[in-house]
């Protein structure tokens, strides 16, 4: 079945440590890929996007993500986490790769806790 | 600019009651969406609209209706609320050129008893 999967429900890291959040997809063609962040009590905000080309994309707030076609993955990374990064992170896809779709499918989210 | 606003922020309904959630955006966006967020389920699309006067079903449309009579407003209706509709509801909007960059409202927490 076509899906987007975030294997980790909850991750805890120490402030200053590096971070990697996993996202895997299973679609026939390469979808458009996105990461969103939801701070506590708020709506979601787009962090970064991947359409094609360079497989390492930069986003806001110091985040980056790497697309790996062979692994059907689009993992989110940050070299040094700040306490303000504590939030829930959602991977999202447009399975049509920009076709007449207009909508996204979201993963179930990964909750990030940052210890001081 | 207020961005995307949602009314009300909280609501408690009894089973069988009806209500309407209002979403308004001031960014002149063509596309608008209603999602529900449940623990461990992520965001699921209920209905969406690609322009004034148009609506379409999303992933979980049953028990909900929507209307988009004005470009800036997108209404979500529950005709006969059920406990399974207890959730946090988010509205979002996006431009036609960047449909993937959705701007979200603050959410409405609905409890159906």
Structure in words:
The complex is a heterodimer of chains A (116) and B (113). The model of chain A has no long low-confidence stretch (mean pLDDT 92). The termini of chain A are far apart. Chain A is mostly beta strands and 116 residues long. In chain A, strands 2, 5, 6, 10, 11 and 12 form a six-stranded mixed β-sheet that branches. In chain A, strands 3-9-8-7 form a four-stranded antiparallel β-sheet, with no helix packed on it. Helices cover 0% and strands 50% of the residues of chain A. Chain B is mostly beta strands. In chain B, the strands form two sheets. In chain B, strands 2, 4, 5, 6, 9, 10 and 11 form a seven-stranded mixed β-sheet that branches. Chain B is globular. The chains are: A mainly beta (116), B mainly beta (113). Chain A binds chain B through residues 9, 32, 34, 41-46, 49, 90, 92, 94, 101-109, and chain B through 4, 31, 33, 40-45, 48, 50, 58-59, 90, 92, 99-107.
Write a compact overview of the structure shown.
With 116 residues, chain A is mainly beta. Chain A contains no helices and twelve strands.
Q: What is the 3D shape of chain A?
A: globular
Distance between the termini of chain B: 36 Å
Give the low-confidence spans of chain A. none
Order of helices and strands of chain B: EEEEEEEEEEE
CA radius of gyration of chain A: 14 Å
Average pLDDT across residues of chain B? 95
Give the quaternary arrangement of the chains.
heterodimer
Ends apart, CA distance between termini of chain A? 40 Å
Q: Biggest interface: chains and residue counts?
A: A-B, 22 and 24 residues
Sheet-strand content of chain A, in percent, reads: over 45%
Q: How many strands appear in the DSSP assignment of chain A?
A: 12
Morphology of chain B: globular
Please outline the major beta sheet of chain B. Answer: 7 strands, mixed
**Quick one: biggest sheet of chain A?**
6 strands, mixed
* Number of helices, where a helix is a run of at least 4 consecutive DSSP H or I residues of chain B: 0
Nearest-angstrom radius of gyration of chain B? 13 Å
């Amino acid at each position: 079945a076509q899906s987007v999967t975030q294997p980790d429900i909850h991750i805890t890291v120490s402030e200053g440590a590096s971070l990697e959040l996993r996202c895997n997809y299973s679609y026939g063609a390469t979808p458009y890929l996105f990461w969103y962040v939801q701070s506590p009590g708020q709506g979601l905000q787009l962090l970064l996007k991947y359409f094609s080309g360079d497989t390492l994309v930069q986003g806001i707030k110091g985040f980056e993500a790497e697309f790996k076609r062979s692994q059907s993955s689009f993992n989110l990374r940050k070299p040094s986490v700040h306490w303000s990064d504590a939030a829930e992170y959602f991977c999202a896809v447009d399975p049509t790769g920009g076709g007449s779709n207009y909508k996204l499918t979201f993963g179930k989210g990964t909750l990030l806790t940052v210890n001081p | 600019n207020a961005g995307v606003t949602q009314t009300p922020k909280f609501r408690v309904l009894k089973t069988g009651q009806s209500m309407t959630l209002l979403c308004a955006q001031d960014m002149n966006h063509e596309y608008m969406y209603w999602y529900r967020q449940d623990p461990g389920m992520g965001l699921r699309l209920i209905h969406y609209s690609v322009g004034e006067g148009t609506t379409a079903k999303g992933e979980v449309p049953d028990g909900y209706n929507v209307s988009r009579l004005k470009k800036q407003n997108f209404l979500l209706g529950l005709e006969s609320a059920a406990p399974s509709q207890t959730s946090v509801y988010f509205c979002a909007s996006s431009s036609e050129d960047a449909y993937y960059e959705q701007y979200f409202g603050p959410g409405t927490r609905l409890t159906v008893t």
